[in-house]
């Protein structure tokens, strides 16, 4: 079976060496030495000053909202994983959906100002598939209206924009280190902040809001992660360049083999060094998409409808806002298998199945 992704696993002995050291120390969690080492190496790799390793890619969104004291309405994208909008709801804010750009699939910055009201406090935008949002336009809007900016950069590890890590933009960027990601710690995530004054606050918010037994300063939460997860990150991090290169080879093969007279995919923004996190393709109709998906599954190839559904259509959203571009693309898109070690013969076979089923 060929799944949409396959977790990269390093040499087992490299990981077990860390496990043995952790076992000998008996220090398993609570900001241990392995976690601190990972944070240092991640900051060096990404060239950022403030990074906090946490439990997963959802809790970091919630902590970011809490740290920036965001309330009321948050402008966001309907084309993302549900963690983006769920985090807004869990923090008792209201998602205000703004439709997406039909080329990049990111939030359409030209439409944001139309949705700003006196209740708007922030913009939470996703770098969809690791493809950068219109960062400059969002920054101008945010400054003009005194809004905070959070980037859900769950897919963006290893991506640079104009020579900077994509994770270094916004008031806070968040990242996921889930096992399906380009860089993973099995489960995990990170907060990256551009504000030194948030340093202690973010650190404490992920650890119940206190330091020791006496200093309870915030209503924090358990956003911590363990030494074992950090160890997986330390072993995986040196492999990231070759992981990206291997994913690029799969990406390029699809580019050369698929029928672009009928299909299309998002346009990667300019000035970007990409990480090839996903390979989404958009079909002429939902009918054709289902036809292709069924044909692939017969051959034990499992793509994913990513992202589906358009989040603005979920019944539990407090405000129903039409986003026709997102609604249209979300029912026609499939993410194809993409991972290190996917054989070229399988890529050819997948492309052949798709090309052979493109007509209604």
SSE layout:
Elements: H1 12-25, H2 33-46, E1 51-54, H3 59-67, E2 73-76, H4 82-90, E3 94-97, H5 109-112, E4 120-126, H6 135-145, E5 148-152, E6 160-161, E7 164-165, E8 172-176, E9 189-193, H7 199-205, E10 210-211, E11 215-216, H8 227-236, H9 240-257, E12 272-273, E13 280-282, H10 286-298, H11 324-330, E14 333-335, H12 344-355
Parallel strand pairs: 2-3, 2-4, 4-5, 5-8
Antiparallel strand pairs: 1-9, 6-7, 6-12, 8-9, 10-11, 13-14
Which features does this protein show?
360 residues; alpha/beta; Aspartate Aminotransferase, domain 2; Aspartate Aminotransferase, domain 1; 2 domains; 7-stranded mixed sheet; 3-stranded antiparallel sheet; 12 helices; 36% helix; dTDP-4-amino-4,6-dideoxygalactose transaminase; PyrdxlP-dep_Trfase; pyridoxal phosphate; PyrdxlP-dep_Trfase_major
Q: Could you walk me through the main structural features you see in this protein, from its secondary elements to its overall organization?
A:
The chain is α/β, with parallel strands linked by helices. The chain folds into two domains: 12-238, Type I PLP-dependent aspartate aminotransferase-like (Major domain) (Aspartate Aminotransferase, domain 2); 240-355, Aspartate Aminotransferase, domain 1 (Alpha-Beta Complex). Helix content is 36%, strand content 14%. α4 links the parallel β2 (73-76) and β3. The longest helix has 18 residues, at 240-257. It is globular and about 65 Å long. InterPro entries: DegT/StrS_aminotransferase, PyrdxlP-dep_Trfase, PyrdxlP-dep_Trfase_major. This is dTDP-4-amino-4,6-dideoxygalactose transaminase. Keywords: Pyridoxal phosphate. Belongs to the DegT/DnrJ/EryC1 family.
């Amino acid at each position: 079976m060929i799944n949409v992704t396959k977790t990269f696993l390093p040499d087992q002995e490299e990981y077990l060496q860390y496990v043995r050291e952790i076992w000998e120390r008996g220090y398993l969690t609570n900001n241990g030495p392995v976690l601190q080492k990972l944070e240092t190496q991640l900051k060096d790799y990404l060239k950022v000053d403030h990074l906090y390793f946490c439990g997963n890619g959802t809790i970091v969104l919630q902590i970011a909202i809490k740290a920036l004291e965001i309330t009321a309405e948050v402008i966001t994208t309907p084309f993302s994983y549900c963690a983006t909008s769920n985090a807004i709801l869990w923090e008792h804010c209201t998602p205000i959906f703004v439709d997406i750009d039909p080329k990049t699939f990111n939030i359409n910055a030209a439409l944001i100002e139309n949705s700003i009201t006196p209740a708007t406090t922030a913009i939470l935008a996703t770098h969809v598939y690791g493809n950068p949002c219109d960062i400059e336009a969002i920054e101008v809007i945010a400054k003009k209206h005194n809004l905070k900016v959070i980037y859900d950069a769950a897919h963006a590890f290893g991506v640079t924009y104009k020579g900077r890590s994509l994770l270094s933009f916004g008031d806070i960027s968040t990242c996921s280190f889930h096992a399906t990601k380009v860089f993973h710690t099995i489960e995990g995530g990170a907060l990256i902040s551009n504000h030194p004054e948030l340093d202690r606050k973010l650190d404490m918010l992920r650890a119940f809001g206190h330091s020791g037994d006496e200093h309870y300063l915030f209503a924090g939460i358990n956003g911590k992660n363990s030494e074992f997860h950090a160890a997986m990150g330390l072993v995986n991090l040196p492999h990231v360049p070759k992981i990206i290169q291997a994913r690029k080879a799969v990406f390029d093969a699809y580019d050369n083999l698929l029928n672009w007279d009928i299909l299309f995919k998002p346009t990667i923004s300019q000035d970007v060094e990409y990480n090839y996190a996903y390979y989404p393709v958009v079909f002429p109709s939902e009918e054709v998409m289902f036809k292709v998906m069924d044909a692939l599954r017969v051959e034990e190839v499992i793509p994913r409808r990513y992202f589906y559904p358009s989040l603005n259509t979920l019944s539990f959203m407090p405000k129903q806002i039409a986003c026709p571009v997102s609604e249209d693309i979300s029912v026609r898109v499939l993410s194809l298998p993409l991972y290190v070690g996917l054989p070229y013969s399988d890529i050819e076979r997948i492309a052949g199945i798709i090309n052979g089923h493109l007509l209604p």
